[in-house]
Amino acid sequence: MRAAIVGAGVVGLTTAVCLREAGVEAHVVTRDAPQDTTSAVAAALWYPYRALPIDRVTAWSAATYAWLAGLAGTDGSGVRMLPGTELMAAGAPDPWWRDAVPDLRRTSAGLRLTAPAVDMSVHLPWLVARLRALREEAGRNPDEPYEVIAELEPDADPAPYREAGATWWLVAPDWEGISVDRVRGAIRERP
Ligand SMILES: Cc1cc2nc3c(=O)[nH]c(=O)nc-3n(C[C@H](O)[C@H](O)[C@H](O)COP(=O)(O)OP(=O)(O)OC[C@H]3O[C@@H](n4cnc5c(N)ncnc54)[C@H](O)[C@@H]3O)c2cc1C
């Protein structure tokens, strides 16, 4: 099975790693390189914030916590577990996401918990290297581009991309008002 993922921020790259680990030939299609994304400037502390619905977000947060906690033991991933205290008014209710954290507890100082913290300047290149390693493990040529830039000019020839091993590409995207949905549509059409 093949999959195209739009976006090379932490979400797109992590999705591609998970898919490749599951045996899917995943390709990342992106406008900006990982170091030019919002992900690259994030403080990147795990902390659920203003998202709904609560039950789904708590479950997703728990899954993300577990994924990042697993990576914290991996050399070079840029993930570490950071213990800390959130100051709270006495009598304030527990946070709605408390079930997502294994070691959350109330103290006189506030809410004690350990949360994953990610150094994105290390983690994004680590994800890219992991994609490359997974492709190698799958027996594919490590020199092939894993991502296909989505900025072909209207008269550009996609042949070099194809020759370089690209599986998906976009032709003539109209950057005025372009949306991810439109990009998805263009990908499906294939030249
Ligand atoms: C200053 C700051 C601090 C933050 N701190 C935290 C924090 O502590 N904890 C936390 O959880 N979150 C934090 N965030 C939020 C976090 O950075 C984002 O939620 C997260 O990076 C989003 O990741 P993403 O992969 O979805 O998107 P992005 O990193 O924005 O990546 C989007 C990707 O999609 C591509 N793309 C977009 N449109 C197209 C298109 N039409 N065609 C092709 N490609 C396209 C882009 O080129 C890019 O590669 C912070 C954000 C900022 C700005």
Q: Which regions are unreliable across 5 or more consecutive residues at pLDDT < 50? A: 146-151, 185-191
The class by helix and strand makeup works out as alpha/beta
Task: Note the gap between the termini.
Answer: 19 Å
Q: How does the major sheet shape up? A: 3 strands, parallel
Q: Roughly what is the average pLDDT, rounded to an integer?
A: 81
What does the overall shape look like?
Answer: elongated
Strand order of the largest sheet: 1-2-6
Radius of gyration computed on alpha carbons: 20 Å
Assembly status: single chain
Number of helices: 5
Helix content: 25-40%
Which distinct ligands sit in these coordinates?
Answer: flavin-adenine dinucleotide
Q: Give the domain tally.
A: 2
**SSE sequence, one letter per element:** EHEHEEEHEHH
Q: How many strand segments? A: 6
Strand content: 15-25%
